[in-house]
Design brief:
The protein is an alpha+beta fold. The chain has nine helices and 19 strands.
C-alpha cells in the first residue's frame, strides 16, 4: 500500500465523505473537519490493505476500485464477508481503539482510497456535536456489521469473542503517576467473559488525573462497544476542563441522545480524582468503593445516579474525602455487597504491601470467591504516602 497526503480539495473530499453511510446526515462543518485529516492510500490488484489480527489504525473509504473483506475459518477456508466499492467505507472499529482487525481487506482491482487515521480522528471529538453524531453513526454501523457477519458465517457471529477483542484494545498498558499517591489498577479478563469491564485513566483539563472503571454487564451486542463509546466521550469532556459532575451529566445525555434502538446496554462508571488534598468521587450506577483509613476505619463511597445512557437529564453529585498519609481509596467495578465488604477486610490486612501486589491479591481472591460464576472485575487502588 502506498500512502501520502491527499491531493483533493476540501470541497471534493466533503463530496466523497457525504456519500459514505457512516457520515451521511452530518452537517458540512463536521465533514469539513474530517476532510482536514484524511490521507490518500492506494493498493494494487491482489494487495492486502490490512490483515486479520493486525492492530487497526484507520477507517477507509473506497474512491475508485473494489476491495473484498475476507476472514479465515477454523478449518482454514477463507470466507468472503463482503465487498466494498466506490463510496463505501470499512474498518470503522479502528476509530474506537487499536484492537486487532477482525478480517482482511484485499484489493480485487487497482484501487484508490482515503483513510481517516484514528489518532487524528480522536482529536476532533472535542467538538460535542461531532462526537454525539459519530457515536450514533457508529452504533448503527456496528449493528449492521453484526447482521452481515451472522448471516455470512455463524462462526463469525460470536459476539463475546468480538467484545473481548475490543476490550483488550481499550485496557491501558500502564498506570499513571500521581504525586503523593501509589497507584495500581487492573481488570480480570475471562475466557468466556463479556468483554464489558475496563479500567482507565483520563487527563483532566485542570491538570489532574482521573481513575475510572467502566462496566457493562448485559449480554447481546458487544459490551465493549458501549464501554468504548463511553470512554471516548468521557475523555473528550474531561479535556475541556469540566467538573466531575458536569462530565458525567453531559456524557449521560450524549449516550442517551445517541442510543440506537435495540442496543439498551448501559455503562456503569466509577470516577475517582485524587489530588494532594483528597479524593473526589462520583458514580453512574452502583459502583462499590471506599476508603480504608490508616487506623483501620472504613468509609464507603455513595452511589450518585443511574448508569450512563439510561436516563437523560440526570444531575450527578460529587463527594469529597480528605486523604492522609497511609489512607487507601479503592473501587471495584461490580461485586456483591458481601464480596465488597470481604474485599475491604482483605485490603486492610494487606496494608503496607506494594500497590501492584495488593491489586493482584484482590483479583485472585475475588475470582476464587466467585467460583465458576466468575465475571470480569476492574479494580482501582490509590494509597496516600
Amino acid at each position: 500500500m502506498s500512502e501520502n497526503a491527499h491531493s483533493w480539495s476540501t470541497e471534493e473530499l466533503v463530496g466523497l465523505l457525504e456519500r459514505v453511510d457512516l457520515f451521511q446526515g452530518m452537517p458540512p462543518e463536521d465533514l469539513t473537519r474530517i476532510a482536514g485529516i484524511v490521507i490518500d492510500a492506494s493498493v494494487e490488484q491482489g494487495e492486502v490493505l490490512f490483515a486479520e489480527g493486525e492492530p487497526g489504525d484507520a477507517f477507509y473509504v473506497v474512491v475508485e476500485g473494489t476491495l473484498e473483506i475476507v476472514a479465515a475459518s477454523p478449518a482454514g477456508v477463507e470466507d468472503q464477508l463482503t465487498v466494498r466499492r466506490s463510496g463505501e467505507g470499512f474498518g470503522e472499529r479502528a476509530l474506537l481503539d487499536d484492537a486487532p482487525r477482525s478480517a482482511t481487506a484485499r484489493a480485487v482491482e487497482p484501487s484508490r482510497l482515503i483513510a481517516v487515521p484514528r489518532e487524528a480522528f480522536h482529536g476532533l471529538l472535542g467538538h460535542d456535536s461531532l462526537a454525539l453524531r459519530m457515536m450514533r453513526a457508529l452504533g448503527v454501523r456496528f449493528a449492521n456489521v453484526e447482521k452481515v457477519r451472522d448471516s455470512a458465517s455463524s462462526r463469525r457471529g460470536d459476539v463475546l469473542e468480538i467484545s473481548r477483542t475490543m476490550q483488550a484494545g481499550l485496557l491501558p498498558r500502564t498506570a499513571p503517576q500521581l504525586e503523593g499517591y501509589e497507584i495500581a489498577a487492573g481488570t480480570t479478563t475471562e475466557e468466556a467473559g463479556l468483554g464489558g469491564s475496563v479500567w482507565d485513566w483520563i487527563d483532566m483539563g485542570d491538570g489532574r488525573v482521573a481513575l475510572v472503571t467502566l462496566d457493562v454487564s448485559s449480554e447481546g451486542f458487544p459490551a465493549a462497544y458501549h464501554v468504548g463509546l463511553a470512554r471516548a466521550v468521557l475523555r473528550s469532556l474531561a479535556s475541556q476542563g469540566l467538573r466531575v459532575d458536569g462530565i458525567l451529566a453531559r456524557a449521560n445525555d450524549a449516550l442517551s441522545d445517541a442510543a440506537v434502538e435495540g442496543l439498551d446496554q448501559f455503562v456503569e462508571v466509577g470516577f475517582m480524582v485524587a489530588d494532594p488534598q483528597g479524593i473526589a468521587w462520583a458514580s453512574a450506577g452502583r459502583v462499590p468503593g471506599g476508603i480504608i483509613r490508616r487506623e483501620g476505619t472504613f468509609e464507603e463511597f455513595g452511589a450518585h445516579g443511574p448508569p450512563l445512557g439510561m436516563m437523560g437529564g440526570f444531575k450527578y453529585n460529587v463527594q469529597r474525602f480528605p486523604m492522609n498519609v497511609g489512607d487507601t481509596a479503592f473501587v471495584l467495578s461490580h461485586v456483591s455487597p458481601g464480596l465488597f465488604l470481604g474485599a475491604a477486610d482483605l485490603m486492610a490486612q494487606l496494608h503496607g504491601k506494594p500497590a501492584g501486589e495488593v491489586v493482584g491479591t484482590l483479583h485472585r481472591a475475588i475470582r476464587k470467591a466467585q467460583g465458576e460464576e466468575r465475571t470480569e472485575t476492574s479494580v482501582l487502588y490509590a494509597r496516600k504516602h
